[in-house]
Amino acid sequence: MKNVAIIMGGYSSEYQISLLSGDVVYRNLDELKYNAYRVHILKEKWVMVDEDSNEYPINRHDFSVAYKGTIIHFDAVFNAIHGTPGEDGLMQAYLELIGIPQTSCNYYQAALTFNKRDLLSVLKPFGIKTAISHYINLGDAIDEEAILNKVGLPCFVKPNKSGSSFGISKVKNKADFMAAVEVAFKEDNEILVESFLDGTEVSVGVINYGGKVTVLPITELVTENEFFDYDAKYLGKSEEITPARISDEMTNKIASTAKRVYELLKMEGFSRSEFIIVDNEPYMLELNTVPGLTTESIVPQQARKAGITLPQLFGNAIELALQKKTTNQHY
């Protein structure tokens, strides 16, 4: 039996969603294979939480925990932290340093993909289409006229490093631009201004399943709101249609693009990419390396359509992490 710590929570606005994802993983791991433990990684504490909600401090020296008279050491970590420090490379680097394998990508890929600006900059030379964009760092002089002439209206103003659509605004006229900038800067000290792409939005999961890079069925995102924002994602104000209502040709084009990105970046673990189809071409918006894992989240939905159960999906991720250690790939 392998001891598996499911890390959840985090330091960002996404911590509550992460706790939901982590609990779903906890409830769906094969009890005959794994001793699963919930570990809350929060700004004020790192604790293992038992079934009765009792908390036991994590020893950050070796990521062990004293529980019921014994010291538990973990064979692997299942990473369910959305945002920092689970999706930006910090936990990945820490766990690699102390020699514990984990289920998401490595620290470099995590840091790169968490930074929307850097991710898109790396992919553009490979012919991956993206929106016209402009970057602003906190403290920069902001020339509204020049920025809006470049990206056009409407446009999106979004934090460069955040998830779950926190801090994103759709700006339709110049008068609302600076207010949107202020909202975005509340989430991050770097922001991204992007041209509005008018088309069908889709989301596609790519995973390593049983040692093979596998593209899951594509999901079409239809929202009642201006865009696929927090309410659309988590409060039911959207329709997620899997498989997407797109042609076989477009399905293949998006699947091959998503797989190519996964392989170009030397990704491991889970990924979920968002695209908007404009004039029969997919434009990439972003890539998430710790996507939502609740029963209704997009990647679990896609896995179900592919005939993969949650215990299979989560167990596969742990087995690949354990293999990584035995082959000494990174540890």
Automatic annotation (TrEMBL):
Gene3D superfamilies: 3.40.50.20, ATP-grasp fold, A domain, ATP-grasp fold, B domain. Keywords: ATP-binding, Cell shape, Cell wall biogenesis/degradation, Cytoplasm, Ligase, Nucleotide-binding, Peptidoglycan synthesis. It is an enzyme of class 6 (ligase). It catalyses: 2 D-alanine + ATP = D-alanyl-D-alanine + ADP + phosphate + H(+). HAMAP family: Dala_Dala_lig. Pfam families: Dala_Dala_lig_C, Dala_Dala_lig_N. NCBIfam families: D_ala_D_alaTIGR (TIGR01205), PRK01372.1 (NF002378), PRK01966.1-3 (NF002527). This is D-alanine--D-alanine ligase. Its EC number is 6.3.2.4. Residues 120-319 form the ATP-grasp domain. Pathway: Cell wall biogenesis; peptidoglycan biosynthesis. The keyword Membrane does not apply. InterPro entries: ATP-grasp, ATP_grasp_subdomain_1, D-Ala_lig_Van_CS, D_ala_D_ala, Dala_Dala_lig_C, Dala_Dala_lig_N, PreATP-grasp_dom_sf. Its cofactor is Mg(2+); Mn(2+). Cell wall formation. It is found in: Cytoplasm. GO terms for molecular function: D-alanine-D-alanine ligase activity. The gene is ddl. Belongs to the D-alanine--D-alanine ligase family. The lineage of its organism: Bacteria, Pseudomonadati, Bacteroidota, Flavobacteriia, Flavobacteriales.
